[in-house]
Design brief:
Order of helices and strands: HHHHEEEEHEEHHH
Number of domains: 2
Radius of gyration: 26 Å
Number of helices: 8
Largest sheet: 6 strands, antiparallel
Strand content: 15-25%
Distance between the termini: 80 Å
Structural class: alpha+beta
Shape: globular
Length: about 210
């Protein structure tokens, strides 16, 4: 009997080890277990307490593009949706008075090369445009996707010397006013130019230190 007990003990340990691996394979191999459905916060639940403008923009993007790629308490993020490199809805708004008072909560980014000598023109046209020369992107931030389309279409016109800054601002204001009245200009429905790829728009600059 004394010789059998160690074998029984060893067998019991092995059975427990096998059961542990079977019931929790992720734990056994050092990976965290998958989250339960109750632990996964949906975008809808995250935005339920957001301000109205942010919540509306988020619901519009969810309806059009589905669940975001990333969700945090203060933003939702989509990547590579259509011509957009990135779409971000922010919980915390930035007040903006052009062309009328509204809250900037929705950012849309595309691949777009802005020549350095056009930076000032775009800044004068719309202070909610975001230019990144190195990454080769241009983004607009407003309260809706149609207004972001509008801003970026007019930015393209400015960059290509087809419209002056003052005329672009006047055009933006008129089209935005018409849109609010139910008239949808093509500039609010999508890009009226061919959107390039990042490989065409990035500018890593030049090294000046050996």
């Amino acid at each position: 009997m004394h010789k059998i007990r160690p074998l029984i003990a060893i067998s019991t340990v092995l059975l427990f080890a096998i059961a542990a691996v079977s019931l929790a394979p992720d734990r056994a191999f050092g990976n965290p277990p998958p989250l339960s459905s109750s632990a996964k916060a949906s975008a809808k639940s995250v935005i339920s307490g957001w301000p109205e403008a942010s919540r509306k923009a988020a619901n519009d993007m969810i309806a059009k593009y589905g669940e975001p790629a990333a969700t945090t308490p203060s933003m939702l993020v989509w990547n590579n949706e259509g011509d957009w490199q990135e779409i971000i809805v922010y919980r915390d708004a930035v007040p903006h008075n052009f062309p009328k008072q509204h809250n900037d909560v929705l950012e849309g980014e595309i691949a777009f090369k802005v020549p350095a000598d056009k930076f000032d023109d775009l800044a004068e046209f719309d202070g909610s445009l975001i230019i990144e020369r190195t990454s080769g992107t241009l983004a607009a931030r407003c309260d809706s996707e149609p207004m972001n389309y509008l801003a970026l279409n007019l930015a393209s016109e400015i960059v290509n010397d087809r419209i002056s800054v003052d005329d672009a601002r006047d055009t933006y204001a008129q089209i935005a006013k018409d849109y609010a009245a139910g008239k949808k200009h093509p500039y609010t429905q999508g890009f009226q130019f061919d959107v390039a790829g990042l490989n065409e728009t990035r500018d890593p600059d030049s090294a000046i230190i050996g």
